[in-house]
């Protein structure tokens, strides 16, 4: 692990019975960087996120968030982490403000600070005018941005985003991706962006290619893509065409 990595995963494996979902996975997310985790269905992206968030117990290797070992200092590690799950984490029947107030209190942010904090995160995701709106009334893209606001409420160092653009139209997809990149540039947060969509990756992104539970490549996207481009390289590495 390099000093200053927002996330480091070293030699982590995970099994579901006979299925080896992760095999000796090592990767890192530098501070203040956008890191793409590219893999097709079944690659192991969600399993990795479930270990980092402690939904599953990690019994091999070491995972550190902002330098905190997830097994030795779980509370400190998780306090530095914000997660945007594939499935919805906000209550559709409540307003954006009610949802965020609830999550602020879960993180122990006192009421007097919570209002200012919620106003700040809503401004960060361009939803300042939607505090009083029910989540069910939001568009798909607004709803994802509200989920990102929820993940930012406790000022994490690292955002994990698990296929955050799934189900969105092209315009909303671009907005959510641009927002994440902006948060990195302006707020210094780091992001691990799990995706199966090549178009979401830029040449100067850090990239990890995960396939059938194994890291096949990690480095600068432009270097991994080489002269043949990322689509061809991915196909050559995996034998599978990504989207
Ligand atoms: N709870 C589970 N029980 C048994 N096998 C599982 C379980 N969860 C995942 N797997 C298996 O582990 C492997 C990795 O799955 P995982 O969901 O982590 O991949 P993924 O890259 O997130 O794919 P997707 O994009 O489809 O979610 C797959 O072979 C999957 O079938």
From TrEMBL:
Top-level taxon of origin: Bacteria
Keyword Nucleotide-binding assigned: yes
SUPFAM superfamilies (UniProt xref): P-loop containing nucleoside triphosphate hydrolases
InterPro entries given in the database record: AAA+_ATPase, ABC_transporter-like_ATP-bd, ABC_transporter-like_CS, ABC_transporter_ATP-binding, ABC_transprt_ATP-bd_su_PQQ, P-loop_NTPase
One Pfam family here: ABC_tran
Annotated ABC transporter domain residues: 7-237
Sorted UniProt keywords: ATP-binding, Nodulation, Nucleotide-binding, Plasmid, Transport
The keyword Membrane is annotated on this UniProt entry: no
GO molecular function, one term: ATP binding
Family membership noted in the UniProt record: Belongs to the ABC transporter superfamily.
Protein known as: ATP-binding cassette domain-containing protein
